[in-house]
Amino acid sequence: MTVDPVLRLRQICLLAYDLEWTSNLLCAALDAKVVFRDPNMAAGGNLTNTHIRLGDSFLETVCPSDLAWKNSTTQTRLLERNGDCGYMAIVQVPDVSVASLSMAEQGHAIGMVSGGLISCPGSPGSGFADMTSRNYVLGESLPKEEGIVAGVNVQFHPHDFGTLAEIQENWPGHDHFPRNKGAYFPAGNSWQNGVDSRPHGGVTTGFAAVEIAPRDNDPEEVCARWQQGLGAGCWIDSDQPSILHLAAGQTMRFVTPAPDGRTGVVGVDLWSVPGSRKTFESLDICGVRWRLVEYPSD
Predict the structure, then answer these.
(1) β-pairing, 85-92 with 112-121?
(2) What is the pLDDT of residue 38?
(3) How many CB atoms lie under 10 A from the CB of residue 26?
(4) What's residue 183's pLDDT?
(5) Which domains does the chain have, with CATH numbers?
(6) 123, 117, 162, 131: which is closest to 264 by C-alpha?
(7) Reading across the β-sheet that carries 148-156, which strands appear in turn?
(8) In Å, what is the CA distance from 257 to each residue of 37, 87, 199, 219, 277?
(9) What is the pTM of this model?
């Protein structure tokens, strides 16, 4: 089955009580570093975050502020229920205008939870000077103009997708892998400048799979919703109806919750660096089981 090469798991987001502790632990375990902290998120008053680069993919951690705890936000209630935990899975799509509509139709058709469109003059790696942003309109195409860097993110309700789900399209150059230096706005617009000197650390080159435990839905049904929403050739083997296959050998696995009751993102597989000694087989960090796996042999 041919999958559009752009259709990749590009980012995982975690939710933690202590941003610095969790980020430092992840950086040490994965031989990676923080490349971006979103000033706009911090300015909103409820969340702070870090983005760690793993090859051309990103691991985000978000943490509620004192204001968020005072106001009892969705994130603080989730932490009170689950403790540190997986929070969101983000998939890059080839055409956000198509995928946003098909994702919105799935399940209970709750539709878009939030969406934004960002653009600024420049090129990938040139920073955020003169950036503009606005709310995204469902079904809108990403503007693609020479001399402009642009990106769209659209989020969908965890009730329909087993976890908070986000799709992304960025311009230009988001289809160049594995040493991608194209635009990817969630992690800022300067991370690209370190790719040539250090494509990845010594532990992992990026995501191989995400494991999601839906809270109130059948895993096979939720898997089918992602497939129908993402389209673009992602596929499900009839012998494994709870596994969704994306590009570059990546998968999304949907499972029943374990006895501890955790739901949402509960596991992440990481590609180990070819030819390097594995530093671990599996780890538990931030309520998520991390496994190092090897690329499948041809």
Answers:
(1) unpaired
(2) 92
(3) 22
(4) 93
(5) 8-194 (3.10.180.10), 204-293 (2.60.40.4320)
(6) 162
(7) 34-36, 47-54, 57-64, 8-15, 85-92, 164-171, 148-156, 112-121, 132-135
(8) 32, 15, 35, 10, 32
(9) 0.95
